[in-house]
Amino acid sequence: MRPMRSSTFGATARCVAVALALTLAAAACSDDGDGAAGEPTTKPPAREATTTTRATSGGTGPPSSTSTSDPPRATTTGPGTEPGAPGGMGTAGVGDEYFPELGNGGYDVAHYDLDLAYDPETDVLEGAVTIEASATDDLRRFNLDLLGMDVKLISVDGRRAEFRRNGGELVITPSAPIETGEEFAVVVEYEGVPEPSVIPGIEGDNGWLTTPEGSLTLNQPDGARTWLPSNDHPSDKASFTIRITAPDDLVAVASGVLVSSEPDPDDDTTTWVWEARDQMATYLLQVAIGDFVIEEETGPGGLALRHVFSRSVADDARAPASATSEHLRVLGEAFGPYPFETYGILVPIGAPPGLALETQTLSLIPPGTVDAEPILVHELAHQWFGDDVSPARWRDIWLNEGFATYAEWIWEESQGQSIDSIARRNHDLLAESASDVVVSDPGLDALFGFEIYVRGAMTLHALRVEVGDDPFFEILQTWVAEFGGGSATTDDFVRLAERVSGEDLGDLFHAWLDETDLPPLPR
Ligand code: TRP
Ligand code: ZN
Questions:
Q1: Which one is predicted more confidently, 37 or 223?
Q2: Model confidence, pTM
Q3: Which residues partner with 6 through β-bridges?
Q4: In this structure, what are the phi and psi dihedrals at residue 165, rounded to the nearest 5 degrees?
Q5: Which helix (H) or strand (E) segment is 26 a member of?
Q6: Residue 348 vs residue 12, higher pLDDT
Q7: Mean pLDDT estimate for the chain
Q8: Which domains can be identified in the chain, with CATH numbers?
Q9: What is the distance in A from the centroid of ligand 1 to the CA of 157?
Q10: Which of 521, 520, 505 is nearest to 472 (CA)?
Q11: What is the side-by-side order of every strand in the sheet holding 159-160?
Q12: 84 or 477: which leads in pLDDT
């Protein structure tokens, strides 16, 4: 049993911290004597890596892609398929019932090019963002999401465009209409002090956050729009180039791979360029500035790892971070190949305590949490579940949190605990909590609640017990292979699980996901 330090979650009462703390308590504190760490009693079964081939162009992915400009691997289902409003006005949302204004209809973003300059003295962020998109509808006008900030200039295909602000909507009228299928480039020049928003159900600031050294971003679910004009919904993923200018004595990092860092000869700044080539949802983009050290390492299969630590906590973070290769090996065996070009953890001082976030290729881990191995495993697991396969609607969030929580259990199992006793402990916790949250439709307040994490994970365990280990892991690997790079719904998962297993699983999923009564412990 690994002792839990009470400082791990700080004094925060945020419910994510609570959910993770409970998960940790149940997953990590074996109290029944079986499977002490270091004395493996059970191991996940060896599995063949035959189901991990990704859908490629002409491949076998589901035929539901609505993406015209993204690589063919991207498969988007769900609200992004809604037609634009009549008259070529795009739409002010993608039809997400939890966040009606998030995302926009009528186009599909292929690439974001961010040119950012941040001054930690004044907190002023200056941005010039180029959005390459293709129209999925005739557009006389279209929207981006942006909350706050001063917009100075917008152009579409090099011509100045008219715009107006309406709450979180930036309504843009290009000088000439855009036709369905046409590719276009929007440039938005803006500046200001980003004002974080409050995350529903979490009560913490969300967006571009200042730290004692610089800044970081927490964008899930709707914080990106407080500092980045974007199609701020996971049903429209894209690749990103992130260029950040910051004071010379600081380091600027972002999701993706470092391309260059060039000191500006005219002033005391340096410009850092990061390239994130894999499809990414806006909520998963990390951009952080601080007194960082970047430490590189080679992971399993030659994967390039780079960890980023605030200098003052680097000595504490280095040892926990060095377990990443082993985490990658165990999760890779369970879920198939790691989906992106790089990975690492970002441990910046000033991150909100207790709140880790699975920012793509660079998970954010607060310094006080870096010792909590299940959380490191949890955020890594999100790279497959949440990041590579993203929720098509926010109500499908259990596809992220339930899966990442189950990954913690798989990790504990690989360390010798019995999955049955882990499941039993967590089932006891669920029985005690007697809540009326429905996993498939938790509502905003319970979006990141305990049930999403633990009952979500238990749903996967019930599936595993029902279909058996080999079909279960084949389901998970097929899920990533088919929907990786895009986004998907709960129904997509249920259909895929039934297809792969050949079983009718409607009742099982219904009992776990759509009801409040707690089904018996799967065994
Ligand atoms: N997805 C986070 C996790 O790993 C929890 C979370 C949701 C979060 N929204 C957040 C963390 C905003 C930080 C900020 O469980
Ligand atoms: Zn999570």
A1: 223
A2: 0.86
A3: none
A4: -105, 140
A5: helix 15-28
A6: 348
A7: 86
A8: 2-60+390-514 (1.10.390.10)
A9: 36
A10: 505
A11: 159-160, 150-156, 183-192, 124-135, 107-119, 238-247, 269-280, 257-263
A12: 477
Q: What is the 130 CA–ligand 1 centroid distance (Å)?
A: 27
pLDDT the model gives residue 87: 63
| Protein residues whose CB sits closer than 6 Å to any atom of ligand 1 | 16, 199, 202, 206, 218, 220, 355-358, 378-379, 401, 448
Give the distance (Å) from ligand 1 centre to CA of residue 349: 17
Identify which has the larger pLDDT, 94 or 109. 109
- In Å, how far are 110, 152, 214, 323, 356 from 149, measured between CA atoms? 24, 10, 19, 40, 26
- The DSSP line for 248-316 is TTSEEEESSEEEEEEE-TTSSEEEEEEEEEEEE-GGG--EEEESEEEEEEE-GGG-EEEEEEEGGGHHH
- So what's the pLDDT on residue 52? 29
23 or 349, higher pLDDT: 349
Q: Which of 285, 448, 450, 453 best tests ligand 1's pocket when mutated (most atoms within 8 Å of CB)?
A: 448
Contact 244, 290 (CB under 8 A): no
- Decide if pLDDT at 308 tops 60: yes
- The model's confidence at residue 166, banded by pLDDT at 50, 70 and 90, is very high
Would you state the pLDDT for residue 198?
87
Question: Does residue 49 register a pLDDT over 50?
Answer: no
Q: How far is the CA of 166 from the centre of ligand 2 (A)?
A: 32
Identify which of 9, 14, 15, 16 to mutate to test ligand 1's pocket (most ligand atoms within 8 A of the CB): 16
Mutate to test the pocket of ligand 1, among 9, 15, 199, 369 (most ligand atoms within 8 A of CB): 199
Between the CA of 352 and the centroid of ligand 1 the distance, in Å, is: 11
Beta strands 257-263 and 269-280: pairing type? antiparallel
Q: Which residue has the higher pLDDT, 250 or 95?
A: 250
